Amino acid sequence: MTYLITGGAGFIGSHLTQRLLREGKRVICLDNLSTGDMRNIEQNKSQGYKFIRGDVTKPIEIEEKADVVFHLASPASPPDYFRFPVETLLTGSVGTYNALNYALKNGALFFLSSTSEIYGDPLTSPQNEEYCGSVNPIWPRSVYEVSKRFSESMTMTFHREFGLSTRIVRIFNTYGPNMRLNDGRSIPNFVRSALSGQDITIYGDGSQTRSYCYIDDVVDAFLMLIDADYYLPINVGNPEEITIKELADSIVEATGSKSKIVFNKPLDDDPKTRKPDIGKAKHILGWEPKINLHQGLNLMIEAFRCKN
Ligand code: UDP
Predict the structure, then answer these.
(1) Does ligand 1 come within 6 angstroms of the Cβ of 198?
(2) Is position 45 within any domain?
(3) What is the number of the ligand 1 atom nearest to the C-alpha of 79?
(4) Quick one: which of 16, 183, 197, 255 has the most CB atoms within 10 Å?
């Protein structure tokens, strides 16, 4: 089996790659390294691995045929997509169209990594897959939210119109090794600051909530979904909900840090709450997360100690 992973040098893509290579699969990574990192993939020296530096917003002209396309390419951290707003919109729209066309041409299964961000600043909690979300198409965050909504719409259209086999996961907050030190999201920021003794900065009063899932659990869900005959969107996340202040406190405690927690102004359009309803993933895939936040944070802290 050959897998094409767009965004394969990024955080999630690099973990997925390592799992597939361990299982003896062939992996082609297509990444423009805008937010991916060569250090995530430089250990992949086996014959079964190929890296192609390329941009999904250009037609994908890879001669080799893949059986499965994992379409993960996109900036995913708010500071990254605020820095690359046009590129983010083009990656989700033109990039998804190109990846779908490659899958169609090769008779491959197409797997879209969508996001809980398609629910926007949700008016209901937890969010299940039937919730249509609360997204303002003109706020700055929409570059990510709307591009992923477009990706889902395009994927479903290829499924309906051309009979393409497709899968859609809506990934909630995920963390683990291979996130960049300067990724900008909450867990890498807090762990990095705690380990270096710098202030931990919370945007807003810290009462906003998130639900964090460890990367290995997310990769398990991906591979289970590939084997399941299910094409509608499915939430993948850990329903263990926590406020950002509680998260910062946990990281200070787990690292034994002397860092101070300081409060800054809230980010524009920052969702106040996020928690997945994973009933569907449990029922259809028999999946639920195995690693709780306490265990996952310790693994993350160990990985970041080695980076520091
Ligand atoms: N956040 C924070 N300090 C940081 C980074 C993030 O207070 O250094 C907050 C952010 O405002 C948001 C929450 O933590 O309310 C989760 O942010 P993250 O970037 O991890 O994920 P997302 O907003 O995409 O869910």
Answers:
(1) no
(2) yes
(3) 19
(4) 16
Query: For residues 94 and 137, what is the distance between their CA atoms, to the nearest angstrom?
Result: 18
Instruction: Specify the ligand 1 atom closest to the Cα of 173.
Output: 25
User: From the CA of 182, how far away is ligand 1's center (Å)?
Assistant: 13
Residues 6 and 55 in one domain: yes
DSSP state of 95: I
CATH number at 255 reads: 3.90.25.10
Q: Are residues 168 and 303 in the same domain?
A: no
Instruction: Write the CATH number for 219.
Output: 3.40.50.720
- pLDDT, one tens digit per residue, over 262-282 is 999 999 899 999 999 999 999
DSSP E strand stretches across 24-182: 26-31, 49-53, 68-71, 109-115, 166-171, 174-175
Domain span including residue 246: 186-207+241-273+298-307
- Ligand 1 atom closest to the Cα of residue 247 is 14
Cβ(82) – ligand 1 distance below 6 Å: no
| C-alpha distance across the termini of the chain, in Å | 37
Percent over 70 (pLDDT), the chain: 100
Alpha carbon of 183 to ligand 1 centroid (Å):
11
**65 within a domain of the structure (yes/no):** yes
Rounded CA-CA distance 237/87 in Å is 26
Q: What is the pTM of this model?
A: 0.97
